[in-house]
């Protein structure tokens, strides 16, 4: 990936190329720093966020010890879902900062809040020590995590798209889901190693805290890198011309509400698919299908490795064939193949489980690798951050954060282990309709209107 991106970034004479919609030169070294800052910052945010999902069973035992295992797991995922309710609010706040003050400022603040909240989770005493205050503190810090994360994905995507060469915006924006998956990968590796090496008692006593403690140093590194960058060329142009809107959210709903509805629908497959396939899956395999915890994490880790590779291929495909074709292919794949794939997971054969997870991950990359550039290109520069953040976080608040809870609840209420698959296929259908009604964006310039 890096060779192709750097080649595209290099200009003919001065070692750089003009910024999108701009005569502002952007040199190869600047684009390297932008890629690194976006990757590392988003990686830190989503490592912090994903650890909670991978350690859900242990967290349930620590914070809800008086409940039976399934109820404790439901309560743990309920906290996971509640923290998402703040994300639309965060989308408005971060969108306002990003569109009024600057993309870099919003991204630098969001990573600081996320890292601090995650570090504090590691310090919360157990339920046995402080009673009901323990899950309440956990909820408070989860809400802070949700607020922070609401500005990260949208901001990093807008940042990359606005710095990218016009014919490589899909590839550049694919760095965002790739870094997200890398954060998940590290979380999966740590969880797998710890469950393999530590006893249940050690995990519940102190082991679960270790990944959360890593948040502080990683967050500081990510913030430092981001503060060393300039804002994007197109945003600096708007600021210099004093064309930035004073109330991006008001402008978004007054002028671009149709785009907002379509974007929110397009995000639905990502919202449900991401959290079911990449976050909830280890819990599903171990608690619902009876696979060992170590084997569950190992299968997810292998799938994540292939997912990261597929992401960049998808970004390049979207640059060549268009965003709509790739996104619609993803939706059709999930509608047709999700239920059969989940049925194969029920065989219990480890090799089959790994292959199915690789397939599901590859299908998901068709959506995830294309969605960041698609959403960023849908909205004009003045409301790009707000449009992306609000649509992305609205769908994730309603359907993404609730996905693990809904999957567990659907299985409990129906007794059918395939219930999450039907839920995912339904989300794919909604996304298919939304994308089909949207315009193609990959060949358009980044608009200022």
Automatic annotation (TrEMBL):
Signal peptide: none annotated. PANTHER family: ALPHA-KETOGLUTARATE PERMEASE. It is found in: Cell membrane. Residues 1-27 are annotated as: Disordered. It is a multi-pass membrane protein. SUPFAM superfamilies: MFS general substrate transporter (SSF103473). Belongs to the major facilitator superfamily. Metabolite:H+ Symporter (MHS) family (TC 2.A.1.6) family. This is MFS transporter. Its main location: membrane. Keywords: Cell membrane, Membrane, Symport, Transmembrane, Transmembrane helix, Transport. It comes from the Bacteria. PROSITE patterns: MFS, SUGAR_TRANSPORT_1.
């Amino acid at each position: 990936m890096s060779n192709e991106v750097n080649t595209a970034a290099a200009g003919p004479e001065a070692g750089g190329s003009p910024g999108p919609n701009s005569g502002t030169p952007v040199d190869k070294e600047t684009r390297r720093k932008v890629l690194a800052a976006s990757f590392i910052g988003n990686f830190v945010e989503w490592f912090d966020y994903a650890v909670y999902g991978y350690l859900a069973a242990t967290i349930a035992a620590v914070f809800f010890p008086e409940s039976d295992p399934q109820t404790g797991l439901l309560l743990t995922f309920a906290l996971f879902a509640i923290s998402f309710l703040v994300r639309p609010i965060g989308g408005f706040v971060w969108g306002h900062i990003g569109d009024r003050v600057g993309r870099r400022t919003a991204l630098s603040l969001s990573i600081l809040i996320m890292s601090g909240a995650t570090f504090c989770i590691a310090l919360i005493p157990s339920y046995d020590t402080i009673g009901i205050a323990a899950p309440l503190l956990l909820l408070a810090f989860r809400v802070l995590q949700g607020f922070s994360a609401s500005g990260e994905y949208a901001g990093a995507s807008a940042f990359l798209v606005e710095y990218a060469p016009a014919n490589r915006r899909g590839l550049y924006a694919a760095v965002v889901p790739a870094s997200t998956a890398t954060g998940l990968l590290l979380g999966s590796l740590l969880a797998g190693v710890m469950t393999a090496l530590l006893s249940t008692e050690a995990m519940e006593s102190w082991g679960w805290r270790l990944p959360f403690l890593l948040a502080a140093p990683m967050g500081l590194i990510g913030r430092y890198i981001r503060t060393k960058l300039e804002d994007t060329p197109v945003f600096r142009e708007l600021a210099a011309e004093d064309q930035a809107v004073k109330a991006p959210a008001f402008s978004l709903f007054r002028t671009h509400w149709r785009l907002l509805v379509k974007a929110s629908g397009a995000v639905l497959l990502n919202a449900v698919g991401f959290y079911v396939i990449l976050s909830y899956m280890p819990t599903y395999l171990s608690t619902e299908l009876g696979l060992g915890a170590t084997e569950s994490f190992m299968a997810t880790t292998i799938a994540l490795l292939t997912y990261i590779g597929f992401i960049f291929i998808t970004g390049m495909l979207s640059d060549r064939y268009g965003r709509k074709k790739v996104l619609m292919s993803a939706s059709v794949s999930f509608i047709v193949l999700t239920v059969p794939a989940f049925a194969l997971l029920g065989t219990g054969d480890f090799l089959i489980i790994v292959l199915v997870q690789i397939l599901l991950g590859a299908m998901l990359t068709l959506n995830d690798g294309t969605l960041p550039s698609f959403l960023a290109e849908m909205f004009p520069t003045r409301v790009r951050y707000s449009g992306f953040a609000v649509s992305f976080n609205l769908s994730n608040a309603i359907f993404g954060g609730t996905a693990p809870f809904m999957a567990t609840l659907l299985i409990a209420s129906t007794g059918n282990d395939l219930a999450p698959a039907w839920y995912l296929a339904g989300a794919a259908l909604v996304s298919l309709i939304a994308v089909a009604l949207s315009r193609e964006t990959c060949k358009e310039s980044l608009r200022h209107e």
